[in-house]
């Protein structure tokens, strides 16, 4: 019974999230559950081997087993292939618990959702056909933090379109289980306000220090020129007055030599 259940869970994991030859659809994650709307299509194993104890494959997804919350619908497919549409929702694990059919593939811890699927799930093996085409969109309740190659990340969405990358590296995604925490926004605003207030206080302190600088102290680089000094006209250089020269004497003897005087 345990072996059968293990095979069923593995088949569900493969069929829901990226297994079979082709896959197209959307998987939407919420805080409590995951909504599924995907179509899986690949070769019909009944054309190659009897059912009996044959490995579980996509034909069983629309067969005689059921998973709570999911509905199955056989879809038209080309000759020799099988297609099935899976819709509905499956409960997500409670944070830190293991009470879910999807445990091990999808886990929630510390406010994050972890999706982990090894590359062996997407290659040819016991349960699945090799993945050859995919167009799957994964939507999360919060922003995607990290993702493996093969998908394009846009906010809280990952769109997977590269089967070769998924087959090579598997699929893993880490995303927040809710929108941006307002506490982080409040913390950022507090840091911004605190930094601005500190800068303003420092600027005022430097201005006061510059104004209080004494005459023997060097002026601070923030000191300003007094406003009244800017209005004073430049100093005018004035010539110092000289005394007037004496008038020339009218006495003719002033200009005579001493030897010309009469005896």
Automatic annotation (TrEMBL):
This is Lipoprotein. The keyword Transferase does not apply. The chain crosses the membrane at residues 183-204. Keywords: Membrane, Signal, Transmembrane, Transmembrane helix. It comes from the Bacteria. The lineage of its organism: Bacteria, Bacillati, Actinomycetota, Actinomycetes, Propionibacteriales. Residues 215-263 are annotated as: Disordered. The keyword Transmembrane helix applies. Residues 1-24 form the signal peptide. Residues 217-227 have a biased composition (Basic and acidic residues).
